[in-house]
Write a structure and sequence with these properties.
The chain is an alpha+beta fold. Helices cover about 15% and strands about 25% of the residues. It has one domain: Methylpurine-DNA glycosylase (MPG) (3-methyladenine DNA Glycosylase, Chain A, Roll), CATH 3.10.300. Strands 1, 2, 3, 4, 5, 6, 7 and 8 form an eight-stranded antiparallel beta sheet that branches. A hairpin with an 8-residue loop joins strand 4 and strand 5. It starts with 12 loop residues before the first helix and ends with a helix.
Length: about 220
Amino acid sequence: MRPLPPEFYLDPVTHVARALLGQRLVRRLEDGRRLAGYIVETEAYDGEEDKACHASRGRTPRNAVMFGPPGRAYVYFTYGMHWCLNAVVGPEGQPAAVLIRAILPCEGLEQIAQNRAGHPPAEWTNGPAKVCQALQIDGRLNGCDLTAADSPLVIEPGINVPQDWIQVGARVGIAYAPEPWRSMPWRFIAHLPVEAYATWEIPAFLRPEARSKKARER
């Protein structure tokens, strides 16, 4: 399947953050294996005026990718220990990005389990740093083209997410940002009904009923 085209990333960043829900994030390993999951949580960061955005202090070596073409991966290191993945959005020179906060794994589960060893399946990819660890995403992928068919990291078309599945709220982890930016409703979360997990081909052990059963057994 071909990745989403560059034009997908030219809409306003909040629109792209919403539209990325349900798309398939794919990491292609050197041996040809795929590690993938459906995107279920995103946050929008909108350029130099957005005081929660890395671009708010202007262009730096760290955030330079944000000022480049749309559809590139902006991968940054944080807290001295974690990588986070963003998709660059908007025309070149206008820095904006969507943070990929969570996915539902659907391919390469054995390798994902190894990458997240010691954690239950429900915690494999329910945070931005966890997504990167699970899919083996690090700084070497910073700047890679998410829209190129031969890229090691792409976002492919996935499944439509109806509006009534989506929760919208304030972004998290940005206490440093002043208002109104701290409270902007730019976080988007897809809450799948139980019946949707089968349609999305999510493995049974990752579905809510399986997690509930395990919790009752403990």
